[in-house]
Amino acid sequence: MLSLTLAACGSPDGPRVTVTIPAGATLDAAIDSLSANRVLGHPGLFRLYARVRGLAGTLKSGVYLLRQDESWSDVVATLERGRGVEQRFTVREGLRLVEIAQLAQAQLRIPRDSFVDAAEDSALLAGLRLPQAAPSAEGYLFPTTYLLPLRIGGRELVRVMTQQFSATWTPEWQARLDSLHFSRHELVTLASIIESEVRYDPDRPFISAVYHNRLRRGMRLEADPTVSYAYGRRLKRVWEKNLAVRSSYNTYLHAGLPPGPIAQPGRASLAAALYPANVPFLYFVAQSDGKHIFSTTYPEHLAAIRRVKEMRRAARGSQRTGR
To answer: Residue 106 is inside which H or E element, if any?
Structure first.
């Protein structure tokens, strides 16, 4: 009788929390997640109740919004129907917070300001253990494809995305920070710059190496994406006149890393920032195809720039002659 009584109980006014049930998760793993989020107060008894209801064979993965102390019957019904999995939301690597807010407004009908306000919430930032000076969760809104319930709000979406970042960050990565003498926030900041530079995936560890080498030597990073971020909008191209913009994010004017991330890095860029290639490169220049030419000395870098310009002129000439 106790299990039946508990099954009918619940708090209709309890706060909603986001619970992720990964694909292939066992019933026990799902119950652990529900219990950790305080959806269940008696996980052992619920396990018996769920098995009687046959949930082990009908459990559906996805992202759910559930109330803390939800009634057992509602929890089982939700996980059987998979009513939380009703829409996909894809965030690609390298997007900025404001761009994700615009995407959420267009696809999920979440007001842009609601999403931005949620990403700037002080309690959220404290939960992420960000520096007190961090203005938002920029860099921690993990880029991936989400399965979301309909009518999800800005606060819930931000929490889902930051929880995904935390789930992606591994203990091995945390241990690696100690050998690099980086904080996690510094590492995410560097990874966001790498993400913003790379168009050809194999270049990631080499671009990471350039920035690590520059930081060790006390050189300025001189990363164009940080200048674009300082302007608050995407620049189609960073011109010399743009390099003088007054901002702590302008790495042409200020040595070291900028105050925080400039975009959302994906797993590959986070890994590249943690494990740079063991090369002496200090410079790189992008070719028209997105691949980079890397150099160790400044004269080599100038020669690479000339080579890229020559290739671009040759390409334009071929277009004019129709070849």
So the answer is: helix 97-108
* 12-81 CATH, one of 3.30.2350.10, 3.50.50.60, 3.60.10.10, 3.30.1490.480: 3.30.1490.480
pLDDT tens profile 167-224: 999 999 999 999 999 999 999 999 999 999 999 999 999 999 999 999 999 999 999 9
Q: How far apart are CA 266 and CA 170, in angstroms?
A: 14
Question: Exposed/middle/buried for 177, CB within 10 Å: 0-12, 13-18, 19+?
Answer: middle
Side-chain-facing half-sphere of 180: CA atoms under 13 Å: 26
For residues 35 and 41, give the distance between their C-alpha atoms in angstroms, rounded to a whole number.
7
pTM above the 0.85 mark?
A: no
H or E segment and range at residue 163: helix 154-168
CB-side neighbour CA atoms (13 Å) of 84:
28
Q: Does residue 64 contact residue 104 with C-beta atoms inside 8 Å?
A: no
Cβ-based neighbours of 288, under 8 Å, separated by 6 or more: 308, 311, 312, 315
* Length of the chain as a residue count: 323
> Three-state DSSP class for 19?
strand
Helix, strand, or coil here: 26? coil
